[in-house]
Amino acid sequence: MHQFTFFLILFSFFSAFSQDLSESEILKTRTIQELLISNPDQAYKEALQISTSKNELFGFFGQYYVANYFYNKSEFTHSKQLLIALIENILESKYSKSSKVYHDLIGMCVNKLFYIHKNLGEYDLALYYLDKYKESVPNTPFNEQYGLIKVAMGDYADGITLLKKELKTSPHLKLGVGEKKAMNKKLFADKYNIIGEAYQMYFLQSRKSTCLDSANYYFNTAAKMLLQDNFYPEYTQALLNMRLAKSAALQGNYVKSLHLYKSRTKFPIIQDNIRTVQLFDLGMADCYFHLNQMDSALIYSKKYVENYQITKVSKENLLMAYNIMAQAYSRQNDTKKAYVFAQKSLELIQSIETIKNKSLNFLHNYDLKKIKEESNQIIATKNYFKIFLFGVLMVLTFLALSFYYYYKNQKEKHYRFLKIIQDLKDSKSNRNQNLPIAKMDVHSKQIRDAEFVEKLALGLKKLEQKELFLDPNFKLNFVAKKLNTNTAYLSQYFNQVMQKTFSEYTQELRIQYVLQKLIDVPHFRKYTLQAIAEEVGYKDANTFVRVFKKQTGLSPNYYIEKLENTN
């Protein structure tokens, strides 16, 4: 998220290096670590100097800090190239392949590669590097990394559990040569903030207010840790305001949220980090949109998209910006631009889903391997656990099949959702066009001629435009009276011309109305199913749910949740 993030993972390894670095070399690395925050260009200059040191290990540190410098500047491609080259140098070095120094150096590089791809939304590649080098870092469980990916995939409960486990098991290090207490505490503050952000995402799925309470607790705890040691207080407070602003927005309190985001003017230091500026811009765009200030929403959305071309960080946030722009332009009746950004949203959704599907397969295999490894350890110590192993394998088989059918079903539901959205857009663009009237068999006795058919069609169209189908009394007899005909003729018209029953016709109109309104009016999604049912002419929620599933293949709750997650 910002220039401090995650480079302090180095602290968890540093104690192993003291025997290989002189005291002056250790002090030099400490200095560069701090300069990466306070004076990045100077840090880069000094890192370059030590990267060619005669002490190979000292040189590796220099190369790692150079890669860190480009990571903090969001130049991820170059940073990645440097890290991969560094890993190759470490693999070819004189250090013993079983030594802690060897393992920890590679672990630092793999950790950074993970965050490069995680920030880019390339979760499958992030996991790829964890898996590729796992044999080289056998003592590093990467709980935090796997937890982050699980959260990104929507497995919030398990993901947060892993993140908390990492927080509890991370050692509180004794201060080494030249190490400052505040720098050490920053490592743990980052972990608290990560958990807080995970709880915010969990709220989007569960809608439990306790998730936001937990998120704010972790944010405040992290900030307090840093402010106690006066660690960049302006930047720390700015980030705290930004995170609390997001929580307020998730609660629907956009006035409070916008007030917190606007506090950015008190902290000009954030201008030094483009990724932080982006998050403030996106948050303000979201607030202005929900406060119906479309011009301001578009201004800040455009700022976010412009900076995204530099950082390329977070496809999910880019999707949010596109969606705000599509809806804002739509409300301004600029249908051309609204369509462009709606199309961009759909394409980005497809890209994100493709990456997530690859990552889900990886995580599934990882979880199964983990269960098997733990089971095999038990079997190795207790032979009588053979029966238990058989049971575990049976459970694994069941889980694997359940996983397969679950995600197959999720994929099919998501396809239906995308098709519904596209059909609604097509319907909107064709709404004002005069569609040809279907022709009847000329030998029909009940409906005598095309003129009568056209009269009924035009009459029904007028009733649809008035949205009379939302009336609970919208029945065959009611419509026949409105059209000055009888129920026999009208019923025959539906059966022979429209090729559907009157009941099917009514259901389609009502469900299409609900689908579109849930897109156009976000607060409508907060209604209970009973309230939505009554809105469209049904007396009870059960009937509405049954009809909704029949028409769309989805449940109303699923459709609403997908809309919320794509906004």
Which features characterize this protein?
567 residues, 0% strand
* Helix/strand class: mainly alpha
Distance linking N and C termini: 21 Å
- How much strand content do the residues show? under 5%
* Quantity of strands, as a count: 0
Q: Return the string of H and E elements.
A: HHHHHHHHHHHHHHHHHHHHHHHHH
Number of helices: 25
Output mean pLDDT.
Answer: 79
Low-confidence stretches: 1-19, 173-178, 362-385, 434-447
Helix share bin: over 70%
Q: Compute the gyration radius: what is it?
A: 30 Å
How would you describe the shape? Answer: elongated
Biggest pleated sheet: none
List the helices and strands and how they pair.
Elements: H1 11-14, H2 23-38, H3 40-50, H4 56-72, H5 76-91, H6 100-119, H7 123-132, H8 143-152, H9 156-169, H10 181-206, H11 209-228, H12 233-250, H13 254-262, H14 274-290, H15 294-311, H16 315-331, H17 335-381, H18 386-430, H19 450-465, H20 476-482, H21 487-496, H22 502-520, H23 529-535, H24 541-552, H25 556-566
Helix pairs in contact: 2-3, 2-4, 3-4, 4-5, 4-6, 5-6, 6-7, 7-17, 8-9, 9-10, 10-11, 10-12, 11-12, 12-13, 12-14, 13-14, 14-15, 14-16, 15-16, 16-17, 17-18, 23-24
